[in-house]
Design brief:
2 copies of one chain form a homodimer.
Chain A: H1 4-31, H2 35-38, H3 49-66, H4 78-81, H5 95-115, H6 118-121, H7 130-135, H8 141-159
Helix pairs in contact in A: 1-5, 1-8, 3-5, 3-8
Chain lengths: ~160, ~160
Amino acid sequence: MTTTTTQQELFVLSGLITWEQAIKRATGFFDGLSDEEMGREIVPGKNRIIYLLGHLTAVHDRMLPLLGLGERFYPHLDELFITSPDKTRDNLPPASQLREYWTTINLRLTNHFRSWTPEEWLQKHTAVSDEDFAKEPHRNRFSLVINRAGHVQYHLGQLVWFKK
Amino acid sequence: MTTTTTQQELFVLSGLITWEQAIKRATGFFDGLSDEEMGREIVPGKNRIIYLLGHLTAVHDRMLPLLGLGERFYPHLDELFITSPDKTRDNLPPASQLREYWTTINLRLTNHFRSWTPEEWLQKHTAVSDEDFAKEPHRNRFSLVINRAGHVQYHLGQLVWFKK
């Protein structure tokens, strides 16, 4: 660690690893369950596992425009998994399809993240105005990605309570 | 954002805010409960709330030596809240005392974090050998602190399932 550039890259690497580890843990959890098990409640009276898979997928899909990476892939997931609570909709996609969405969106995001320079990580996300960003420069892509990794962890803490 | 130093400070700020927000959310949760409520299970058959408060306190207390910040304050918590599962020990400290420990250890840690330069954030933590750190320089204090914030989020996802 001899140059300043390397130090910036180390901070970036920490954020990237935090994101990748959260995705890996959650994916490992979902991969360990059958499609039938995905339809069960985590514990009695709480969300079904498939709902949390859809919820996490929709939240990550929303990261595309938030990070200035273009249009969303799956905007139709919002009304099923973000604005509606679980068990209020009959028309959820099958688990196999949500698994594909989950893999696709995370791969797309992660490939972008791996390509960013430290400067690109520090750009503002699109939910912040230029004016607010001037006052609060920590509201950047780096913070957003770490925040979303924490969101995965939050739901993972719930998911691990499922007993087959 | 004109100088490289400022960019490094922005990465540090993201990590610090991630930590502080996790602590604030968890503390807000615990503060909203009576000592009697702290003794209840989060959901039937799962950990009691007081156990998770003790667990998080013990894990944060372990951060002192891990981060090279000196001796632990509460090493006696480990056998109650880390190496023993919940409901296997009769001699837990009262909730009021654990609340104090939680506040004290987080304040101490946070004060250290606020004082660190970017270079100090990138120092290795003490669970990594010099040899491994040379190969894996991301195993630094910054990564460890973000990781522990994620650990708080993980248990917070469980705690919010408690119904008074």
